[in-house]
């Protein structure tokens, strides 16, 4: 049975796209069949990352102008050449949103006019992916904040990963999302988790070993966030500046298999397989 995971955040810049794409690539490398959907419609980036043009865009599918086979692009060959290739059975398909601003405006207009219709298309997309591709995982990168797009994407997911950095704006916004949105979605069976990213402990020399005051402070914040939101922290990923400014950050797990970031993504995937 496919597991559908949505990566979400209160605001942009939390690294959710980087984590989502690396998780998808690593799962495929390990032998899973993965469908990765770029539904961050206001700032889609997977097209730029993978440099492959789909036959049609997810925008077309959600507006009823394309079939699911036309919008899903097989990128398994793209990742095949990295770090020992892909295990037997591993596949990675990507559904990409159109980066043109006029298409973004069109989707926003259509969403305002018919959010219920859009939700039905989201549900149908999930059903057809499962039926036609038999994926082990469907991974969704959503738009940040409380928008029709985000809420509809979250509504079809089995697990919600609320991604945040360790700043007051992120923390306050995360508390608001947990209270206003996530509490409702979890009533219908979805599981929600906090995913902390770019926390202190690696780039700061005094704390590079992962101990000391930074690590202790992070544990305090994790406990505080869990207490306020009622959501478990599924992973806490340190800030890796070399990854943050890398042009190929979306494939770090393949290009740098020994990097500490890759080890963190491996731990996250292990946690997903146990808890989701």
Number of domains: 1
Q: Which structural class fits the helix and strand makeup?
A: alpha/beta
- In CATH, the topology is named Rossmann fold
Strands, total number: 8
Radius of gyration: 18 Å
In whole angstroms, how far apart are the ends? Answer: 12 Å
Mean pLDDT: 84
Task: Assign an overall shape.
Answer: globular
* Helical fraction: 40-55%
Give an account of the 3D structure:
The structure is a single chain. The chain is of the alpha/beta class. The protein is built from 13 helices and eight strands. Helix 9 (168-186) links the parallel strand 6 (159-164) and strand 7. Helix 1 (16-29) packs across helix 13 (260-275) and helix 7 crosses helix 8 (148-155). The model is unreliable at 206-216 (pLDDT under 50).
Please outline what is shown here.
The protein has helices at 16-29, 46-50, 58-62, 68-71, 76-80, 101-113, 115-133, 148-155, 168-186, 212-229, 241-244, 252-255, 260-275; strands at residues 3-9, 33-39, 72-74, 91-95, 137-142, 159-164, 191-199, 232-238. It is α/β, with parallel strands linked by helices.
């Amino acid at each position: 049975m496919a597991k559908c995971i949505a990566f979400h955040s209160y605001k942009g810049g939390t690294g959710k796209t980087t984590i989502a794409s690396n998780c998808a690539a690593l799962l495929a490398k390990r032998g899973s069949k993965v469908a990765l959907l770029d539904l961050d419609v206001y700032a889609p980036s997977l097209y730029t990352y993978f440099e492959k043009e789909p036959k049609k865009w997810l925008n077309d599918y959600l507006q009823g102008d394309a079939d699911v086979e036309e919008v899903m692009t097989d990128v398994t060959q793209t990742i095949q050449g990295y770090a020992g290739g892909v295990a037997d059975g591993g596949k990675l398909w990507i559904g990409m949103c159109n980066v043109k601003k006029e298409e973004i405006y069109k989707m926003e207009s259509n969403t305002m006019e018919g959010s219920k219709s859009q939700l039905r298309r989201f549900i149908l997309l999930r059903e057809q992916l499962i039926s036609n591709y038999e994926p082990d995982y469907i991974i969704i990168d959503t738009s940040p904040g409380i928008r029709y797009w985000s809420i509809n994407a979250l509504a079809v997911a089995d697990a919600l990963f609320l991604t945040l950095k360790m700043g007051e704006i992120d923390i306050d916004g995360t508390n608001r999302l947990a209270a206003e949105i996530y509490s409702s979605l979890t009533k219908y069976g979805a599981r929600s988790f906090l995913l902390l990213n770019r926390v202190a402990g690696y780039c700061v020399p005094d704390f590079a070993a992962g101990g000391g005051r930074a690590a202790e402070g992070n544990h305090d914040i994790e406990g505080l966030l869990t207490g306020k939101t009622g959501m478990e922290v599924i992973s806490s990923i340190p800030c890796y500046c070399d990854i943050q400014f890398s042009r190929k950050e979306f494939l770090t797990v393949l290009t740098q298999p020994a990097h500490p970031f890759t080890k963190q993504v491996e731990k996250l995937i292990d946690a997903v397989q146990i808890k989701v």
